[in-house]
Amino acid sequence: MRPGIHEQLSSVTEAAACLLWGSVCPGCGQPAARLCRGCAQAWAHAAPRDVAGELGGGAPQGVAVWAATTYAEPWRECLVSFKERGAWWLAQPLGEVLALTIAHAAPALASGVYLVSVPSAPRAIRERGWDTTRGLARAAAVTLQGVGVQVGVGARLRHARGVRDQAGLGAQRRSQNLAGAFVAAGDWHGRRVVVVDDLVTTGASIREAVRALRAARASVLGCAALAATPRRSGG
Ligand SMILES: [Zn+2]
């Protein structure tokens, strides 16, 4: 079947954008104005799964941890482009996938929920110009609000002290680096929250986030991330 006029026009527009701006797909590097069809399909077909069992002792106690994908291509390159290469516009499509994952992690969303992102290191926020994980949480909130869920994103966790960059640290060092590192200011009693992050590696970040939220008397419904590191290469 011949493509319709809209498909032809959009592919002409896309080709022009590639010629003019050298645009490439952030997932695979092929010429594309935004996500190429293959990478968009890879995200659309993401099948969120409970990864708590893959984290060994690293999972937070008594709460589900769901991830949309495995930290492998093309998802990994998309996340790196979003966080480190200025592909801020990925917040919207990735936020939609995160919203689906949140719905799996916390099926009882209908009565309202707060999305609380794992705080990025202050240095990462300075270098990137914004808190990318918080941006994902906000985009996921818009998607959930679109299907009638009451979602709050105003409340946040903060760093109680300085931490090292987690990259390159093993599981034990990650856990030590983050133990007691987050604080939820104020009394969160009665607030139902879902912890969201971009990537789950050992579980140390979400475990610390859950601890800080419970210390402030929040009710943690679950944790959701866009990707989980395959166990064989996890720290
Ligand atoms: Zn692609």
Automatic annotation (TrEMBL):
Pfam families reported for this sequence: Pribosyltran
Residues of the Phosphoribosyltransferase domain: 176-231
Gene3D superfamilies according to UniProt: 3.40.50.2020
Name the record gives this protein: Phosphoribosyltransferase domain-containing protein
InterPro entries: ComF/GntX_DNA_util-trans, PRTase-like, PRTase_dom
Superkingdom, natural source: Bacteria
Family note: Belongs to the ComF/GntX family.
